[in-house]
Amino acid sequence: MNIYFVTFGCKVNAGEDQYYLSQLIEQGFKEAENICEADIVVINTCAVTETAAKKSAHYISKLRKDNPHLKIIVTGCLTEEKGGELKNYGADIIVTNGSKSKLIDHILNMTDGFIKASEGSFAGGPLSLHTKTKTRAFFKIQDGCDAFCTYCIIPELRGAPKSMPENDVINGFKSLLKLGYKEIVLVGIHIGLYGKDLGITITDILEKLVKIEGDFRIRLTSIEINEIDERLLNLIKDNNKICPHLHIPLQSGCDKILSLMGRKYKKDDYINMIAKARKLIPNVTIGSDIIAGFPSETDDDFNETLNTLKKAGTEFYHAFPYSERKGTKAENMENKVDVKIREERAAKLREQGHISLMNLYKNSIGKTYTVLTEKGNKGHTENYMLVHYDKNIEPNQFVKVLTTEIKDNKLYGTII
């Protein structure tokens, strides 16, 4: 039986899909190269925004129309919102986030699972085999969120914070190393909350992982500014096994808008923490998520966000226009920003982000980085720059690359 996974949304979904695919292959399934070769397709949906929800729903409908005999299994955040209604879109089997821990059983038995996320258990785990030629493994160690930002519905779709037990993380991490993965990305819906339900912290588990023997590196996904402390920064500084790249969601660089969003920090907290990170970790790079055009955001508020990002020196921008989400407090807020203005502001953010990235590239010329090779003679440095190099090297190798030039907005280097 050939099976194919389609992943929408976050890296948590990607980590789940890697895990469940490896489990199914152990059960005798074969990974299809594409949908045309598949007997079963599993769609892990996203519903963080209305646009994402519509995109997932449309995909299900189109897939059913184009493949009337295909078995379609739908899981992920959209199932928490729409439930059995997804049968009308073309789903054969529906497995909600709360039932996802039993996804394998539901696939084997072709049964639905409708447990709500708030009542479900932790879903996912480490891969049991190396799928295809991927160089990095997305290892889900945390799920759920209780931040309740005014624009976000994720706490409703994913439930309260849940963590993988500490020993399971350590053993799972070791098993990924045995499979040959050299970069392991620790993922979670709110990774900084790892261990909240266990009485430990994300730094506690990292301190144990870096003591494991082997040639590997750990990359963190998005972590909130108020979950970063000097202990974590010093751990990154003192251990080359942790990538010096922090993706810190800002969302807005204006205190007025941050308050309306329900964010639990101010712009100066972001600026000061990044300054501290740069002082302790010289080659650290910073990425951020930014929402443009949140209700009540004026031109001055938006320019304040631009200035905050410039002052902090953020290099990697993930900017997008605000999108109303049903069921959130922000949906009913007054002083909505015109959709066209939202899009224009998001475009300005991306433009500034491009300039920041090019400046990072320029400042990197003549320096040597450790690159994990990927297909196509390229790979990522420890601080997340994508470098194209001059030799044909098999994927999943650590090489030293001297950066030499920027051409067509791409960074190039020579393997030394």
From TrEMBL:
* GO terms for MF: 4 iron, 4 sulfur cluster binding; metal ion binding; tRNA-2-methylthio-N(6)-dimethylallyladenosine(37) synthase activity
Question: What positions does the domain Radical SAM core occupy?
Answer: 131-359
Residues in domain MTTase N-terminal? 1-112
Q: Which organism is it from?
A: Candidatus Mucispirillum faecigallinarum
An example Gene Ontology CC term for this record: cytosol
User: Could you say which cofactors this protein requires?
Assistant: [4Fe-4S] cluster
Q: Which PANTHER family match?
A: CDK5 REGULATORY SUBUNIT-ASSOCIATED PROTEIN 1, MITOCHONDRIAL TRNA METHYLTHIOTRANSFERASE CDK5RAP1
Keywords of the record, alphabetical order, are: 4Fe-4S, Cytoplasm, Iron, Iron-sulfur, Metal-binding, S-adenosyl-L-methionine, Transferase
Q: Which SMART domains does the UniProt entry name for this protein?
A: Elp3
Q: Which PROSITE patterns match?
A: MTTASE_N, RADICAL_SAM, TRAM
Record function comment: Catalyzes the methylthiolation of N6-(dimethylallyl)adenosine (i(6)A), leading to the formation of 2-methylthio-N6-(dimethylallyl)adenosine (ms(2)i(6)A) at position 37 in tRNAs that read codons beginning with uridine.
This protein is called tRNA-2-methylthio-N(6)-dimethylallyladenosine synthase
Which InterPro entries does the record cross-reference, listed alphabetically? Elp3/MiaA/NifB-like_rSAM (IPR006638), Methylthiotransferase (IPR005839), Methylthiotransferase_N (IPR013848), Methylthiotransferase_N_sf (IPR038135), MiaB-like_bact (IPR006467), rSAM (IPR007197), rSAM_horseshoe (IPR023404), rSAM_sf (IPR058240)
Gene3D superfamilies named among the record's database cross-references: Methylthiotransferase, N-terminal domain, tm_1862 like domain
Can you give the residue ranges of the TRAM domain? 362-416
* EC code: 2.8.4.3
Q: Which domain of life is it from?
A: Bacteria
